[in-house]
Each structure stands twice: as structure tokens, then as C-alpha cells.
Design a protein that fits this description.
The structure holds two protein chains of two kinds.
Chain A: H1 7-27, H2 33-47, H3 52-63, H4 66-72, H5 74-79, H6 81-112, H7 117-123, H8 130-139, H9 144-168, H10 174-194, H11 198-226
Chain B: H1 2-28, H2 35-49, H3 54-66, H4 68-77, H5 83-88, H6 90-115, H7 122-126
Amino acid sequence: MNAIAHPAFSVALTIAAYSLGIKLHNQWKWVPPIVVACVPIIVVLLLCHEPYAVYNRGGNLLSWWLGPATVALATPMYRNGKVLRASLPRLALIVVIGSIVGMVTAGVTAWLFGAPLPVVMSAVPKSVTTPIAIEVCRELKGIPQITIAMVLLTGVLGASVAPPLLRLVHVRNHHAIGAATGTAAHGIGTASLVRRSEMQATASSWAMAAAGVFTSLLAILLRLFLH
Amino acid sequence: MIARRTIAFLRGIAILTAFLFIGQFLHGLGVPIPGGVLGLIVFYFALSAGVVQLDWVDAASNLLLRNMVLLFVPLTVGLMDMVGLLSRQALAIAASLLVSLAAVVLTTGLLGQWLLPPDNEAAENGGAQPIRTGRESAS
């Protein structure tokens, strides 16, 4: 029985690596904490020749909190609720269009590059939060592992790329930045905004939840269309 | 004082977990929305209706939200097991990812900049003042 097999070791290692990520992120803003957090863990696992499944016995204990954290997103949503309520129908329209654009461009691009149908279907829900994306992927007969990878890469990339990309095209509206980041980069994008501006995070968490709901519903339509 | 704050924190965790349970229960009954998001929606309505007060959950929510990246770390580490699977379709996956990410960010961002009321003039368009929480630039 080695140390890594203990769930407590995985949890301690993960929190330590995350703290390092936050520390470096506070020093240099462009460093994504999630990448810094993952590298030491992967290095430890590779050096010890331990498979991911062993690490994930403890990792699961942390992943479980994504459920309560998803519910907790209602708190910033509600706090700025009065500000959002005025523009909520417009926000909803924007997020629906964003979700359709995300599903169509992801699927069509993968298809144009010659990916087989299951990979194409795995790409379709890649903009939404992991638990929803996995369910949509299964509905569409995709490969959940590919969807998870794409969701996480989209989140990591989106969290660091979306704000500068929006600055480049002169999008300065807090709600527009939030809506774009939440629709494109789900929880990881939202989490990066939570540390930056609550108004952006509110629009982002609302957009992230809405994009999840809309994508689930649009996936039902897509499935009917395919049959 | 510390004890009261700890109780408030634990109460928040219990409330969030209870709404997660409600969401997952409704999902189990056949509602096609995943449990976490369903819990979020029900919790949002509970806050709007005043069934749950914001300060009951504030401490717990803030801890989870501000450290949400931590909760994604174990899943992200899982990428190490998918190297073979990913490398076979690497080009299609990378292209799909980049094109779609740029398309969604630009469509949503530009539509938002065009359609949504400016931050400072929200009052003109909706009659509501933006709520300043003092956390705007916290990081």
C-alpha cells in the first residue's frame, strides 16, 4: 500500500498544487492556475507509475463539490438580479444564439476535418459545463472522454483567451464579457471571472447555466433531426 | 463570534447540498435538465421568493465559487489517460475547439455589446441601479 493510494494524499496534493497555481497567478496574471495545478500532480503520478484512477479515488472527493458549487452559482446571479432582470430577455436571446453557434461550428469543423461521427458528436456539447456536456454527449452517442477533454481545454483556453479577444474587438460591457465567457467557457471561464468582477461573473454564471439548459434542449432537436 | 460564523457556513453548505438533492431528485423523475443546473434554478427561485435568505448561504457560496478552479483540477488531471485517444483525432479536435471557441466568444460578445444596456446607464434602460458590492476588483 503506497501513499498515493490514500484518498487523503490526493486531496492534500491537489489543494497544495492549486495553492501554488493561485500564488503564481497572483504574481503573473497570465498564468492559468488550473494548468499550474495539474502539472505537479501529473508529474508525481508519472514518477510514481501510478494510474489516474488511483489518484482519482481522492480526486473524486473534490470533484463531488462541483454539484454544490453549481447550485451556489445562483448566489451571485441573484445578488445582481435587479440589474440583470432588465436585460434578461436579451441575455437569453444572446445565449441561445451563442449556444447554437457553438454546437454548429464545433460539429461542422470536426466533420470537415474528417472526424468520424462519434467524434463529431463529442465535439457538439464542448462549450457547456462538464456534467451537462457528458449527458448531452451520451444522448448524441458521442465518446464522453473526448467531450471531457474538449470541455476542459475549451474552459482553460477560453478563460485566458476570451477577455483579451473581447478587448481586441472593443467589447467593454461587463454583461457582454460575462455572457461571452460563460457561454463559451462554462465554469472554468466563470471561475476566472469570479476572481475579477462580480458583474461579469453574474452574467457569466447566468449565461453558463442558460447555455447548459439551452444546449441540452437543442441536443434533443439535433437528435430528432439525425433520425 | 467564531462559532456563529462557523454555524452560518455549515448551514450554507447544508442548504446548497439540499438544493443539489432536490435537483438530482427531479432529474431522476425524468426532467431532462441535469441535477446540478436544476438545483441552481430551484435555488434561484427560492432566493427570489424569499424562502432562503442570501446571508444564510453567502459564506458557503463564496468559498465554493472563489475556489471553483480547485474543483476542476482532478478532472483536468484525467487528460493524462486520454493521450492515445486524443492524438488520433488531434487535428480535428483542435480545429473544432479553436473555431468554435472564437465563434462563440465573438458572436456572444459583439451581440452583447450591441444589445445589452451600457453598464453605467443600466438605470435608463431598466430602471434598476447596478448593485455595487465592493467586490468588483477583488482578486
